[in-house]
């Protein structure tokens, strides 16, 4: 039996109301023989989607598994998570993405949608078999070398073009690698005072500027991972104003924390 | 009747049809015991080849000789050209030699156009860079017409490396003129930016296109394109865009399989498809001579 009356929840943050569930689907009237759940004081939202998770399986099951990640997601209100490709082995073949997808099915808590690597081994040199991943059981549509930037502009262009064949999207970890060699924290007054090697905003913004132009030129879909500078936001806003198909995400710590916290040299705040 | 043949878009419907009809007459000659016509006796045709292409050069040479023209083969390799002589200086030499027609194959797009401005004789583009190869398109159209009886309304797919293919460009313009409907099928990386403005349909999905075709033409895909990330691997390319026996089975009963050659078996086409009765690959070679005879005849024949 999967009939519920969820009572008293503030729906999408609005007035409290009852939510009816018949056979696991939201209904417009109270189902027969329903279980009642008192949700007074709680907020009801649709299932959330996390576009950027690292489930670490295969390879680092000591840190996280598809199952533990699924549990955490479900507890937090997420009904779907995208699993980044920097596993060991890397999710750069149909075999690995299907493995992750099956582990998600077996855990059975949320939709686990594997992200495929753009390049073989995340090495940024050769395209991975994106088409094979797209037509696999995992039906991969998002491809990312997250953790590494696809820094070669020709390779990035080809990747953006290639995924148009199956309406895919390239999710870029925007970091010009030559500008961040040895970098430890945001480059600015604080890094100068602390004597720590700086990570300049331009390292992120230069790649975003290049990639939104590429996406516009070849009319493909680009997603920017973990945007962290005001300049990046301006660039993305500009690209969207052109009608280019660009999306972006942001993390809580990039929104809420500042580099002053590094004053105590606690590496947690880098 | 035809001054130069630089692009298949130089040909209107009437002229293109005349070339194909003339080629049919030339094919009849090629079937005779004595394969020669005296039509171009005393005229000089120069084959000026800056790229190795034995098959195309031999085809033009056979065509000119069957029309009794004098043929000079001017291979760029080992000649003054490889010692740095410019195309313009070579053109002036050919002009001084009294070439009536120059058949040029060149790695740079536009070389035949430049040549046509420097000499009095006619210029035939036998393939320039990634631009055009109009006699290939004519022989392809001739082959389609002789197998299927018409060109108007034929549904033709060109599959493979359109971006780098001069054969694809020439076929697009000529088939359009002749009333066929063209679909280009390729991974997006191997289609030129701006293809939306061409008079064609575009698809990334070969399987969805096959059941609706009269003709599928497989274009050559060089392995080296893989190194420049145009596609991930030979395996993925042939799985998505190669024509194998299973895919051939999805074609309508009457549909034919073409390839301009040289083909790479196991890449864009499987051996059983290349050798099947639907394949016109050998006919295309034979038809090449007839079509090139027709082009040279219509260029030079009327002025003897
Ligand atoms: Zn990242």
TrEMBL record, chain B:
Chain residues that bind L-aspartate: 83, 166, 220
Binding site for carbamoyl phosphate: 55-56, 105, 133, 136, 261-262
Annotated ranges, domain Aspartate/ornithine carbamoyltransferase carbamoyl-P binding: 4-145
Pfam families (UniProt xref): OTCace, OTCace_N
Catalytic reaction(s) noted: carbamoyl phosphate + L-aspartate = N-carbamoyl-L-aspartate + phosphate + H(+)
Domain Aspartate/ornithine carbamoyltransferase Asp/Orn-binding: 152-299
InterPro entries associated with the record: Asp/Orn_carbamoyltranf_P-bd, Asp/Orn_carbamoylTrfase, Asp/Orn_carbamoylTrfase_sf, Asp_carbamoyltransf, Asp_carbamoyltransf_Asp/Orn-bd
Pathway listed: Pyrimidine metabolism; UMP biosynthesis via de novo pathway; (S)-dihydroorotate from bicarbonate: step 2/3
EC number annotated for this UniProt entry: 2.1.3.2
UniProt keyword list: Pyrimidine biosynthesis, Transferase
Family: Belongs to the aspartate/ornithine carbamoyltransferase superfamily. ATCase family.
Function: Catalyzes the condensation of carbamoyl phosphate and aspartate to form carbamoyl aspartate and inorganic phosphate, the committed step in the de novo pyrimidine nucleotide biosynthesis pathway.
UniProt-recorded name of the protein: Aspartate carbamoyltransferase
């Amino acid at each position: 039996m999967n009939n519920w009356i969820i009572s008293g929840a503030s729906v999408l943050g609005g007035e409290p109301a009852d939510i009816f569930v018949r056979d696991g689907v939201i209904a417009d009237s109270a189902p027969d023989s329903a279980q009642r759940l008192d949700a007074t004081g709680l907020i009801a939202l649709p299932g959330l989607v996390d576009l950027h998770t690292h489930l670490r399986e295969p390879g680092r099951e000591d840190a996280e598994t598809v199952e533990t990640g699924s549990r955490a997601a479900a507890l937090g209100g997420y009904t779907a998570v995208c699993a980044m490709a920097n596993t060991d082995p890397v999710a750069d073949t149909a075999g690995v993405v299907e493995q992750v997808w099956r582990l998600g099915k077996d855990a059975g808590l949320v939709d686990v949608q594997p992200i495929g690597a753009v390049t073989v081994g995340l090495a940024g040199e050769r395209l991975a078999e994106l088409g094979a991943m797209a037509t696999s059981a995992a039906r991969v549509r998002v491809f990312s070398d997250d953790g590494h930037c696809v820094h070669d502009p020709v390779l990035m262009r080809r990747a953006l073009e290639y995924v148009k064949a199956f309406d895919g999207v390239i999710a870029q970890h925007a970091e010009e690698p030559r500008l961040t060699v040895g970098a430890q924290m945001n480059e600015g007054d604080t890094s100068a005072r602390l004597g720590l090697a700086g990570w300049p905003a331009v390292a992120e913004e230069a790649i975003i500027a290049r990639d939104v132009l590429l996406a516009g030129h070849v009319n493909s879909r680009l997603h920017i991972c973990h945007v962290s500078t005001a300049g990046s936001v301006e660039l993305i806003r500009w690209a969207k104003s052109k009608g280019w198909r660009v999306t972006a995400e942001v993390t809580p710590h990039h929104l809420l924390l500042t580099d002053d916290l590094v004053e105590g040299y606690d590496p947690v705040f880098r | 009747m035809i001054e130069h043949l630089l692009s298949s878009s130089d040909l209107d419907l009437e002229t293109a049809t005349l070339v194909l009809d003339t080629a049919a007459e030339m094919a009849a000659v090629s079937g005779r015991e004595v394969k020669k016509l005296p039509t171009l006796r005393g005229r000089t045709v120069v084959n000026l080849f800056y790229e190795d292409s034995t098959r195309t050069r031999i085809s033009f040479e056979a065509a000119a000789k069957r029309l009794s023209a004098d043929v000079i083969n001017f291979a760029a390799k080992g000649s003054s050209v490889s010692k740095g002589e410019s195309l313009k200086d070579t053109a002036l030499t050919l002009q001084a030699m009294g070439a009536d027609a120059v058949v040029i194959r060149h790695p740079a797009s536009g070389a035949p156009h430049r040549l046509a401005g420097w000499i009095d004789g006619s210029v035939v583009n036998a393939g320039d860079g990634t631009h055009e190869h109009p006699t290939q398109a004519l022989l392809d159209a001739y082959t389609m017409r002789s197998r299927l009886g018409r060109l108007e309304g034929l549904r033709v797919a060109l599959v493979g490396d359109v971006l780098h293919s001069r054969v694809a460009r020439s076929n697009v313009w000529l088939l359009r003129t002749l009333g066929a409907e063209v679909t280009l099928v390729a991974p997006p990386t191997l289609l030129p930016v701006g293809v939306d403005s061409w008079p064609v349909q575009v698809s990334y999905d070969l399987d969805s296109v096959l059941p609706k075709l009269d003709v599928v033409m497989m274009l050559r895909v060089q392995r080296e394109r893989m190194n420049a990330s145009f596609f991930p691997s030979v395996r993925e390319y042939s799985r998505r865009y190669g024509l194998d026996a299973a895919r051939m089975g999805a074609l309508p009963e009457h549909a034919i399989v073409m390839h301009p050659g040289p083909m790479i078996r196991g890449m864009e086409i499987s051996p059983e498809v290349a050798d099947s009765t639907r394949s016109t690959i050998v006919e295309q070679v034979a038809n090449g001579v007839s079509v090139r005879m027709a082009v040279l005849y219509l260029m030079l024949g009327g002025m003897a």
